[in-house]
Design a protein that fits this description.
CATH class of the largest domain: Alpha Beta
Order of helices and strands: HEHEHHEHEHEHEHEHEHHEHHEHEHEEHE
Family: Belongs to the serine/threonine dehydratase family.
Distance between the termini: 47 Å
Largest sheet: 6 strands, mixed
Number of domains: 3
Radius of gyration: 24 Å
CATH architecture of the largest domain: 3-Layer(aba) Sandwich
Strand order of the largest sheet: 1-2-10-7-8-9
Pfam family, one: PALP
Strand content: 15-25%
Subunit structure: In the native structure, TdcB is in a dimeric form, whereas in the TdcB-AMP complex, it exists in a tetrameric form (dimer of dimers).
Structural class: alpha/beta
Shape: globular
Number of helices: 16
Enzyme class: lyase
GO molecular function, one term: threonine deaminase activity
Length: 412
């Protein structure tokens, strides 16, 4: 990506008036999302913890804020040409709704494997959707070609002052909703949300810690901050597609260097456990990227000054993907046990094993019965079992009960 599509300088000012003006622009368009105290997380970290529920925002994420500010400030001539964007989902929906509200034609390029619910929602908001590219880089290349061919204005997902200003309105809301906040934890991809929140809150109170969180397998900021410039990270593999961005933007990078205390990373297991935690305990549906801040709190509870506000940045997750993530989270939390058990191939052997599992208090989810395998004797069968448990100690007691009953466990 180059700076050729940038319509405002990277040196734009970001003061209190900047974010107040952006808040005025989105008034009546974006929701003032609620902040809910999480007593469960509070007990974990030993201080008050609040969740800023941007997953309840219009379009299911914070993206409508920046998209609307950016598009609303286009010139009349630019509006007539229309806008174009590239996105895997959340930015696409934000641009589509913002453009629809302003009566501007929008064309969105999305990867061919983009989640079907996100594609459908983007179309329902009124945008033309084109599926192209194996990943976001391919979609962005197509969007830039569209800009060159038609003159449409590119609405970048994070690298523009108006985008950053719009996302920063979340910071102003947090200051009003939790006036004594000392730490704000923010999921981070390209950096527009983190930069906006950090600059906005520091325009009022520079003493507040702002912490960014990235997926460990898609974290471009640590290396970029070490180099002192945005550095491309080519290999990205994470379930948190909303923050899987290979290179920081110039505009947010400058602000993050100035205002952000640190960037932390979380593993895939920690992300899945965080999604499970928010669903179970906060009764909120979030996507993996939206739960990154919660993952950071659970991974290192003592690292943050309280009171803490964690931004839940989005809730757009495919239900089938959510099922897999929850199962992954249960496994990571020691509440989902998978094992292979060797038993004699005789009538009643499967029923005997299942009765033993039932007596142990485990909830059997699936059973696979294998009679033919190179590693099995003629009179042996292998039974693969998946079951829900109450936690790591319960998993261990189930295994011990089976071993005590004479069962051979091939793989817990």
């Amino acid at each position: 990506m180059t700076a050729s599509w940038r319509a405002a300088p990277a040196t734009a000012a970001f003061d209190r008036a900047t974010f107040a003006a952006a808040a005025e622009v989105i008034s009546g368009v974006a929701h003032r999302t609620p902040v809910e105290e999480s007593t469960t997380l509070g007990r974990v970290v030993g201080k008050r913890v609040h969740l800023k529920a941007e997953n309840l925002q219009r379009t299911g994420s914070f993206k409508i804020r920046g998209a609307y500010v950016r598009i609303s400030r286009l010139t009349e001539e630019e509006k007539a040409r229309g806008v174009v964007a590239a996105s895997a989902g959340n930015h696409a929906q934000g641009v589509a709704l913002a453009a629809h509200r302003l009566g501007i034609p929008a064309k969105i390029f999305m990867p061919v494997d983009a989640a079907l619910p996100k594609v459908a929602a983007t179309r329902q908001y009124g945008a033309e959707v084109v599926l192209v590219g194996e990943n976001l880089n391919g979609s962005m290349a197509a969007a830039l070609d569209e800009v060159e061919r038609t003159g449409r204005v590119l609405i970048h997902p994070y690298d523009h002052p108006d985008i950053v200003a719009g996302q920063g309105t979340i910071g102003l809301e947090i200051l009003e909703q939790v006036p004594d906040v000392r730490t704000i934890v923010v999921p981070t991809g390209g950096g527009g949300l983190l930069a906006g929140v950090a600059a906005a809150v520091h325009s009022v109170d520079p003493g507040i810690d702002v912490v960014g969180v990235q997926a460990a397998t898609a974290a471009a900021y640590p290396a970029s901050l070490a180099e002192g410039r945005p550095v491309l990270l080519e290999d990205l593999h994470t379930m948190a597609d909303g923050i899987a961005v290979g290179m920081p933007g110039d505009v947010p990078f400058r602000l993050i260097r100035e205002h952000v205390r640190e960037i932390r990373t979380v593993t895939e297991e920690q992300l899945s456990r965080a999604v499970l935690h928010v669903v179970e305990r906060a009764k909120l549906v979030v996507e993996p990227s939206g739960a990154a801040g919660v993952a950071a709190l659970l991974a290192d509870p003592g690292a943050f000054r309280g009171p803490v506000v964690v931004v839940l940045s989005g809730g757009n997750v495919d239900p089938l993907v959510l099922l897999r993530i929850i199962r992954h989270g249960m496994t990571a939390a020691g509440r989902y046990l998978q094992m292979r058990v060797l038993v004699q191939d005789s009538p009643g052997s499967l029923a005997g094993l299942l009765n033993k599992l039932a007596a142990s208090g485990g909830n059997v989810v699936s059973v696979e019965h294998t009679r033919t395998s190179a590693g099995l004797a003629v009179d042996e069968v292998e039974i693969s079992v998946e079951l829900e448990t109450k936690g790591p100690e319960h998993c261990q007691s189930v295994l011990e009960a089976l071993r005590a009953a004479g069962y051979t466990i091939l793989a817990p």
